[in-house]
Recover the amino acids of this structure.
């Protein structure tokens, strides 16, 4: 059982052994995700997007431009480049370390020059609801946002297209609104997950009440485990939003704070849902035990009815199968039919008895 | 299993995909509830009620009148009209979005010009205590209250008739008192529900202790689930009242605050009751398991008594059914009656043994 | 299952339907408790007690007298009188409503002119520890205390006799001390209840460990339920005292506050006890299940011992009861005694086996 | 079941019925503990100890002496003397009442002239870990400490001998250090108890996993109950120390506060331990149930193996014991040995089947 | 069962009996760990390490040098030396006592001259995940750090080598950074432990779901117990870091505080993990019970199928084994084959019945 939130644990420890704090080591898979840096610059009347091979050419350092610059760093294997960006923007070494060590808890750290936000985004959901998480780091500066993603996926495409088309307020407001839009799209992802869970639990409950099996128990157990991790991820997210709202940084303007409050609201609603799931799942385990007890009870009742009826009768039959010389009943003509009558009466009495006990 | 509080989840996500925040989309059923707007204007000496086809004719914008204007918007499918009202009254886009997205958690948001309140009202209770919820949005301004209801039902008829007849204080006080009266009528609804639950639990407890069945387990499970959702709804309500009382908005006067405190009191009492139900229900599951164990125990006792008495006797009978040539007992005249005596003694001894163990 | 704290729920809702808040409706049984008003006036050197037919003659409005006036209103069916008192003393309409609606949670409300205190007093304890509660409302003013009791019982006789005889400080201090004495006598009642519970649990534990039955389970379940309600009542009481101590009302002097702190102490001790009971009771349910499992295990062992010994033997006997023509053993002279020997050896071996397993 | 912390409950209620608050009644056993008062006076260079027959001769009232006076009151039956001390030192009547009512919760009350501390000390531990508690009241004044003990035992001998010999700081510091030393010795007592519990639980766990019996269940239940009471006692103690440290009384100097903090540390550690015990014990009940289930499962397996093998065989044997005239098999010469072969094959197949299921 | 965090409990009590607080007694094993003192002095351009036979020669008291001095005390049996160091550095007697009493809870105490930190470090992990803990005391002064270790192990080798080689910031910053580096290395240790637990739980879960045995139960129980202790250790650690960050001591500079915050983050993540483990383990016990119930159910089904089929048939066979003179069926030629047909039909019907019930 690996905690999917901190699944690269092992790598960290072994890779970082003996290094001073602040040493930059990427703990993920270095082969699969080459580092690419792209840059989007926009203001209310223009929009530019380009791949940045060399950071010194970045618009980030161009003082002539106004507007917002969004630097997307996808893939974290190229430590050198990441370190360069960090140095040029005066990012604290510990922040850089946290960006690369993708086992962070979601958190917010407010520095003088920037706000550092770590989030867990959902990278994959399997059929059996096994969820995989990626780390997303956001650095929100005065007129820029830098995002560090573990792999290049299409997750921010909708936000990007909104920027490109200028729908809504996004091009009218500053970098804090862009950061909000990004975080909001992450939280929305969890709502999709929630729908999958809803369906899964519905199926499981039906199975549980009408045809429980050992498989059902496994499913409940696995679901329970996923909920434990999911809850950690979500509760960290809402905690993070709370801190962000409480902080008095000039980087987030009051006008935009109301949007952050909206995200917090969503995160709390998600948290509520997960709590509900946990209660439902813990109830399901009890139901499973009850249903099982019920079934054992039923099995026992069947056995008892059969055994209690036929064991005494067999005894009677056994008696008249004995070979004693002097057994006068054996000679009487009506013994056999009378015995049958006796058998039938016994059976009826016992059946009535069990019927009264509601066993049959 | 769908969470009845947020049952339109799926719609939101699919309908809102790719839209910027603040985009207005109604997530409910658009066909069933056409939007109708009615307006009630009153002060201590007069009362007017009329359907408003065009909002620009609303009394809301008439500066000549004093008194309170209550605008009722029933049905949320006509987004355009709702947006117009919003713009004319300077309502924040996020508030409008929340009004239409009927999956909100009950909450209070205090803006400069108005207070925005979201509540869950009970729209339907089925026989098996399945509760359905509707969202009610209240905007409390300086001299007006706007309510947004998902469907037009007769829920506010009593409040309306009080305004119309001028009973109590309602026409003497301002819009904050009207908002209180509306919220109070929502909370009262929950008390009705509570009575139904009281009766249902009483029935269930009797069933549980005297004739538990698989059906009982299902009922407990369903009740438990309803309680989880109900508790969320109620605890959000009382949380909301607490926030409303704490807020220092000039829109609620100290004289009226004492009434809000009264509603808070009711909400807390409801919350207490739900907690009590939860404890009772969780106790019931344990009782169910115990009763079931008890029944299995009883079944086993019956089986054991029958089997333990007759299996040994059958063995004895079997012995004298053997066909060995040299079995001297078979020839003795008193063997058979003596064996019967032996059987009876054995039976009596075992019956006494089981009686001593209190199994029969 | 009715919550005994709020047992008149149904009445409230049906009686109050459609009335504005502040409407006075008594929700209890109107026939059984006629309203009687008596008045006790005392100061350090004199004591008067009289029935007040007409409140305008009350000493409460006599400005010439110094000392404390205690007005006892027993029975709440005469709404008109209660409303008159309220108006004459400028009591808030919501307070009057709460006095009559006897389903309040215990609470404290501090107004400028008076402090309003609602308590639950124990009106009856049945043999099976079913507790019934009455509501007691106390209004503590500058030189007066008004108590509203649902029925006229002898509960305050001791306090009254203390006032009459002038024992202790009661006649030397102001109305706040009288209110304290009344609350203290209510809390003392709960200690009496606690003793009954102590005894009941002791009996139940013995029964549980030595002779558990279905009846025991019922008792545990009922006790558990009573504890849930009792705990609510007591925790509300101690919460109430905390609020009373925190409030900075001039109506309670610092000298008397130390007495209120003493009552708080008692309430906390009671709360501790109830928590202890709850833990004990929840443990008892587990014990019950364990004891039951133990008993089932024992039943099974007996069955297994009997069946495992005699079923194989019966099979052997069955073999030699077969009627094959060629069964040489049947002809040997020592077959029968040797078989008996075999039987006995088998029985001994199995008995030793079961003894080793500690089943017999 | 009596709560050993408040075991004299019954006495209080019956003895105090009808008395005003502040009435002094000793609720314990009046016959066994006569009141003796001894007095120890010391400063850095001298030490006096004497029995005080008459309090007016006490050094407490001698203004000429500097140093600390420790008055030990052992046995609380002599109410009159205790009242005299109280009056002479201006002790609040409620404090005196609490000293005599030995059912107090551990608590701290800070008055202007003194600090009143109530503690539970362990008076006896039985073999089965049944713990009895006594109440210890400490009054810490400016230059004196008064201790009220229920019985005269040797519990404070070590502290006394330290004072006498002048080891450590005790004679160099003021009364607050003496009070600390006394409280510390009480807390140390609990550590001794903790060791006994450690050993007891270790024994119980071994018994549980290797030879559980009904006795084990009883022991777990009793231990659990003791833990409930012990936890209350200890958590009250640590709560008390927290309050003492928070209070800004001039009676405890900052230099000595660091020692009180040390005691708090010990109390928290004890509290941690008890929590650990509770978790262990609650786990043990689950283990017990599992072990029991395991045993029942084993019993059932044995029964099933025996019955499933021999019942079908007996049926076969029964067939050939039938007396039909036309049963050709009966006549064949090899029928009997072939049938034995068949029996053996069946037995082997079933044994392999059960072996595969790991039942044997 | 000994709590491994406070395993030397017994020693303390017996060794300290009768001593005044502040008496220095080492409660651990005095024979195994002789006290050795080594000293490392460094600043940004130099590094010295030497064994200190006599503390008065220590660089700690040399006022001429700037830089940081790290004094390592390994083995706590030489009380005299430890007392000397304490006196020379004005360490409070209670701190010295706590250093020697290795049963402390992890804690922070801030004094004017130094900060005293107690941590639990992992000294050994057995194969069955039994963890042993050692106490580490750190005294952080203005330009020095003193560490007290119970035994001399290689735990700080990495930190030492970093100091020696001057990697990272360690030689550029003050003593507070050194203390951070030491604490960080302790916390890292717990991550290693966490990986072992991950693997262990994974194995256990597989065993549980596919081949549960009594051994599995034992393992779960032991794991649960270890988690209880581990959680205490870790939660104390994170609590400690919180206090350290909150404290406003000039000994920790703001620049270094960010590193302490990083350690806090790690500690919280560890705490999260342990909580997750606890939930998983508590779920595992339930699964175990369910799996067991399932198995018992299966055993019962097999028994019931065998018994319900063959007991009635045996009865039929028994009938025709009776020796009545007048049993006409016995004479009919087709009786026997017809009876076989009857047997087979019965068997098929019952098999279909059980198949329908999904028992076979």
């Amino acid at each position: 059982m690996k905690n999917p939130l901190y699944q690269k644990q092992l790598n960290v420890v072994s890779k970082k052994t003996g290094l001073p704090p602040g040493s930059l080591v990427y703990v993920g898979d270095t082969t699969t995700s080459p580092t690419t840096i792209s840059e989007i610059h926009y203001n209310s009347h223009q929009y530019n997007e380009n791949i940045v091979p060399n950071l010194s050419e970045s618009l980030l350092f161009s003082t002539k431009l106004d507007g917002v610059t969004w630097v997307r760093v996808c893939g974290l294997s190229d430590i050198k480049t990441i370190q360069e960006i960090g140095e040029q923007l005066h990012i604290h070494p510990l922040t850089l370390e946290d960006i690369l060590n993708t086992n962070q808890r979601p958190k917010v750290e407010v520095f003088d020059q920037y706000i550092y936000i770590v989030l867990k985004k959902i990278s994959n959901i399997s059929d059996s609801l096994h969820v995989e998480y990626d780390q997303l780091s956001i650095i929100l500066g005065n007129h820029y946002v830098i995002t560090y993603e573990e792999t290049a996926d299409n997750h921010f495409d909708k936000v990007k297209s909104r920027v490109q088309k200028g729908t809504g307020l996004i091009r009218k407001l500053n970098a804090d609104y862009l950061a909000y839009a990004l975080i909001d799209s992450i939280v929305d992802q969890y709502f999709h997950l929630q729908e999958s869970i809803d369906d899964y639990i519905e199926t499981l409950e039906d199975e549980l009440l009408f045809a429980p099996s050992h498989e059902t128990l496994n499913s409940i157990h696995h679901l329970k485990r996923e909920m434990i991790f999911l809850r950690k991820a979500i509760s960290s997210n809402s905690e993070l939003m709370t801190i962000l709202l409480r902080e008095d940084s000039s980087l987030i303007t009051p006008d935009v704070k109301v949007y952050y409050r909206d995200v917090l609201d969503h995160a709390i609603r998600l948290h509520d849902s997960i709590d509900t799931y946990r209660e439902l799942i813990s109830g399901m385990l009890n139901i499973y035990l009850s249903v099982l007890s019920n079934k054992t009870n039923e099995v026992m009742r069947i056995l008892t009815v059969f055994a209690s009826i036929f064991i005494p009768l067999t005894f009677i039959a056994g008696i008249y199968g004995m070979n004693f010389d002097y057994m006068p009943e054996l000679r009487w003509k009506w013994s056999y039919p009378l015995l049958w009558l006796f058998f039938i009466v016994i059976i009826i009495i016992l059946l009535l008895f069990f019927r009264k006990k509601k066993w049959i």
Summary: Chain B has eight helices and seven strands. The beta strands of chain B are 36-43, 46-51, 68-74, 107-110, 115-125, 131-140, 144-149.
